[in-house]
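Hi W.,

Here's what went into the run:
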Amino acid sequence: MPIDKEHIRNFCIIAHIDHGKSTLADRLIEHTGTVARRKMQEQLLDDMELERQRGITIKARAVCLRYIYNNEVYEINLIDTPGHVDFHYEVSRSLACCEGALLLVDASQGVEAQTVANAIAAMNANLTIVPAVNKVDLVNARFDEVVVEMEQTLGIDPSEVLKCSGKSGIGVDDILSAVIERVPPPQGDPNATLQAMVFDSHYDAYRGVVTYVRVMNGVIKKGQKVKFLKGGNVHEVLELGQFVPAQRPCEELTTGEVGYIICNIKSIKQVHIGDTISIAGDQSAKALPGYQAPKRMVYCGLYPSDGQDFSELRDALEKLSINDPSFEFEPETSDALGFGFRCGFLGMLHMEIVQQRLEQESDVDLVQTAPNVTYEIKYKRTGEVVQIHKPQDVPDSGDIEEFRQPIVRVNLIQPSEYIGTVMKLCQDRRGVLVRQEYISPTRSMIVYDLPLAEVIYDLHDKLKSATRGYGTMDYELLGYVAADLARMDILVNGNRVDALAVICNRADADRRGRAVCKKLKAEIERHMFEVAVQAAIGTRVIARETVPALRKNVTAKCYGGDISRKRKLWAKQKEGKKRMKAIGQVEIPQKAFMAVLDTGDDK
Amino acid sequence: MPPRAAYIHVPFCRHRCGYCNFTVIAGRDDLQAAYITALESELAASIVVPHEVDTLFIGGGTPTHLTAQNLQRLCALLHAWFPTAENYEWSVEANPRDITSKVAHLLQAQGVTRVSLGAQSFASGKLVMLERDHDAGIIRDAVGALRDSGLVVALDLIFGAPGESLSHWQDDLRQALALAPEHLSTYGLTFEKGTTFWGRLDKGELQTLPEELEREMYLAAIDMLTAAGYEHYEVSNFALVGQRCRHNENYWLGGEYFAAGPGAARYVAGRREMNHRSTTTWLARVTAGESPTAEFEELSPEDRARERLVFRLRRLEGLEIDAFACETGYRVEQLGGDALAQFIEQGLLAREDGRLRLTRRGLLVSDAMWPYFLRT
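Here's what came out:
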């Protein structure tokens, strides 16, 4: 039975990571009887194994709920969103499919950095905000204070704030009725030409690409021929349906509805997120604005530690990228590490997740180089601006007119007692204070502009330890700004090791250089000869450490019973050496390639 | 061809010294008789028929800690199973305190040719630290008794004991040379897991010597002993002309050997086997008619060649390159690859007159080279 759009509501839940989004979503699904209680699995929407392991949501999910309110049946489409800053762009995708957003704040944690970032994004997208405080049944819940924080930071009307608990199910009915009453039904004309937005997709080994759509205008029917406007490719809709949350086929999706279509598309690359689907032929509707493509913020090299595994690694990366188009990779060669890939990620968490999945899903032992952000270089002679994804690509300083780095605006929220410590953290990283505000008598928010490179490496960890875990942060890219940057090379016995080069601020170079050399000295085993580790900018050596030569290493006793034992011991040492990378005659352990991240802070 | 060497392990000791991780049992002399009986069974089961040998070695533990009667029984056993060829060598390890003229005479009468004395040091402080029960006077008396019985004398010395200085060590070397033993072994003290020294090191009660000092001590031994006319023929071993330990040379050359006793390792028909290291377990197994073997391995021809390459290079005269290829079927270049070329270039190995051998520099860091010649 088709449903009229006045009885459709589309909303998403936005929250800081760990504020109970997925648990609440599970309660909503359970409460509306969408899934029988016995089939409930904790965090139904987080169905990737890794998401479950880490307790976080990575990809946005959609589920269709049926709810009877005032004796009328409503179709409520809930789109779950990730809470981590790395997956910010997934949030923006969800927002474009909704008319409302349930803003969830943890009753004890209060407003945090991603609460603010996601709420502002939802407001900017003109969504109706339904504010709610979650986990109100916690002993340390501080509902009233949290409401004040929401009012102060986001201008939320305190009288509109609902109380709920995903754990016990408190307030679930209130949320569902508030969504129906406050969130407007979708706009659009069911009689107009089909216009549907592609907001996600996944690859199913048996069915090909499953495309997630929100119908903006018109109706999409089974058997219909549709056109993907971006590529102009036309496909027949073999199946369409809704997520409940498993796929449930139906005959049509009408204006305002959210669901999926399957069109026998073999490659996920043919489906562009943000694309518009319309009818085949030349009477197609206009394309929707779509989304900005996700920006890769962090790059690193991934190499098989055994060169034999190169093609295995390539297969594993390809397999992963099928369901994660936000990650990209291209082959690269390093003198030190051989053949591998330069991979781009949305952020550090994304990088960790991809690496973890590679390790879980393939047997390849990986060497990872230190991550770096993307820089821009303006050439002197040509004026050409080039993006730099790896330090090795930085040209001679004489050719550089301007060296630019990405700057982000970082919101940091913490108990006010830590504000001094947090400010020092930011100042030490060349931050520029933008503003400071008190969001409650005890908590405050500071906003800094910081180089992205300084943020991604360890700011989050440092913030957590400086604030006993209470500080949170979020950031958005502001743009590229010229800075006094240089490529710092690392030389091992006079040989430049390309995989160890880093880009850093000239003023920090001495400190970083010393720290890196020291770290490498500790990682490199003693050899038969002295090993010099140097840091250099251009031809100028700025730091040096020496790994002294081995002086004595000889087993005294070796008789009948010792022969097998010694042979095995030495052969085992050989196994360890295999996993090292030889630079000239110097063997460098894999761990050392991350040593360049050492900032020299701890001195 | 069956092995022409045999090793017997005697686990008994008066006291387990703090640095020792050998198969040793202290304070259980009540097991001596049962041990000899078990050894009889092990030999009967594994040797089957008597085999003529060129070298015999009774090691320990402390073979001389056996009572005279048990020592005699042991020797009789060996006579039965391992009749000696002409010009045989028969070594017995001994604790200096055990070597009275009576014991020396007994050994000589049984056919022993060579006694290896665990002297370790002449300095009383160092001997106490090493938990040894003798002093310099007892060593001299023991050497005298062995000489009187016409036995060849080999002395073992340890260097690098905690607190030891270079001059103390040189003094030990001088005193050892004064006794003019035919053979000298010098061992750098190592801290092994399972010893009380290991635990004391861990707790910070003991300190290892700086690597540089150990190096100087080792070089001092090489320099003083070679100057005194001893040939430095293996990493830790020095001998007067014609006095190398033939039994040990057989190990290093990759030769095969019989063995019996707890923890003993044998190499027979291409198979390496190691008996259970616990004396009581070994006893129980042998007594029950079970095999005392705890571990074994059989190497491929290539791995065997690699092992030979390494252990032969630990002998200072090194190896003859062509002969090695004939014998093993592998050329050293093939086994050593790039690493071999590098070590030669770095002056750690020398290749001259058709031989490959360690240089002095190479000798000092040789353990760091061996992994490159082996494979997993």
